[in-house]
Design brief:
heterodimer; A: about 210 residues; mainly alpha; Rna Polymerase Sigma Factor, Chain: A; Arc Repressor Mutant, subunit A; 2 domains; about 65% helix; about 0% strand; B: about 80 residues; 5 helices; elongated
Chain lengths: ~210, ~80
């Protein structure tokens, strides 16, 4: 079997490009679709990804993870498109844990929305909320929650520390959760549910 | 590992759901959840959220055409280089 690169020089050969990268086409296409949420935009993004990968093939280090390399190119191409369309909003990172999400859940419980997932068809609301997430939180959520990458793998694709992956992912999930609760409130479910609840029910707190 | 309080558990909730904690921490949280109904409710809610997110993953419905388009793109790029 022909080696991907000259083992002595470590230089990639142009003809190896298709053989090495095309087995990952389905994964790249799925990732592009998760990022764009639009089939036509996703196809354009895949073409752009492979074109950029082809042109940068000589910079690919043999033996490194080609799928991760393609995902990074895909994600960067996606961000360039978003910037051109003026939909790129950079958000601050911070030290984030799950506590604020639990507080949101407590608030939802007080409003009678503790069983939110049983009250509404959450899929359309979640899909819309994911599409509205600002970068860099959107890409992290797609990589970890939709594509099933570990924190370590997502960090490698994005070239950021694992701690940053965690904080961005947790913030993204919290934004999705808050969007869902707002969606239910806007639909009047909180009022109807609260009316069923006892008016004297004490407010919950996170214990200890 | 000593028993955990609720504050510790909810702060580690997403790491727990993502199985990003070590075995001892996972076991300590499991033990807390077995005893604490409120933390169990929080965990159930957040787990459902993550599960719903995972269902958004989509497959391309025409991979053969996409592959053909990508191959054409590569051929054109290669021809331009020559």
């Amino acid at each position: 079997m022909k080696s991907m690169a000259d083992s002595e020089t470590g230089i990639t050969k142009p003809d190896d490009f298709e053989r090495t990268t095309l087995p990952h086409l389905d994964a790249v296409a799925r990732f592009a679709l998760s990022l764009t949420r639009d089939r036509s935009d996703a196809d354009d993004l895949v073409q752009d990804t492979y074109l950029r990968a082809f042109r940068g093939w000589r910079t690919f280090r043999p033996g490194s993870d080609v799928r991760r390399w393609l995902f990074a190119i895909c994600r960067n191409a996606f961000l360039r498109t978003r910037r051109r369309r003026g939909t790129f909003v950079e958000s601050e990172d911070g030290d984030v844990d799950a506590m604020p999400a639990v507080q949101s859940h407590l608030q939802a419980m007080r409003e009678g929305l503790g069983d939110l997932f049983e009250l509404i068809d959450v899929q359309p609301a979640i899909e819309r909320a994911v599409g509205q997430l600002p970068e860099p939180h959107h890409s992290i959520l797609v990589l970890v929650d939709l594509e099933g990458h570990s924190y370590e793998e997502a960090a490698a694709v994005l070239g950021i520390p694992i701690g940053t992956v965690r904080s961005r992912l947790f913030r993204a999930r919290r934004m999705i959760q808050e969007s869902l609760i707002a969606f239910a409130e806007d639909a009047g479910l909180a009022r109807r549910a609260a009316a069923r609840a006892s008016p004297n029910e004490p407010a919950d707190t996170v214990a200890s | 590992m000593p028993p955990l309080d609720c504050g510790h558990v909810v702060r580690a909730l997403w790491d727990y759901l993502d199985r990003a904690l070590d075995e001892a921490e996972m076991a300590a949280i499991d033990a807390h959840l077995a005893e604490c109904e409120r933390c169990r409710a929080h965990t159930g809610f957040e787990r459902r959220l993550v599960e719903e997110l995972r269902t958004l993953r989509q497959q391309h419905d025409d991979p053969a055409t996409l592959r053909s388009q990508v191959l054409d793109t590569i051929r054109r790029a290669r021809a331009e280089e020559r």
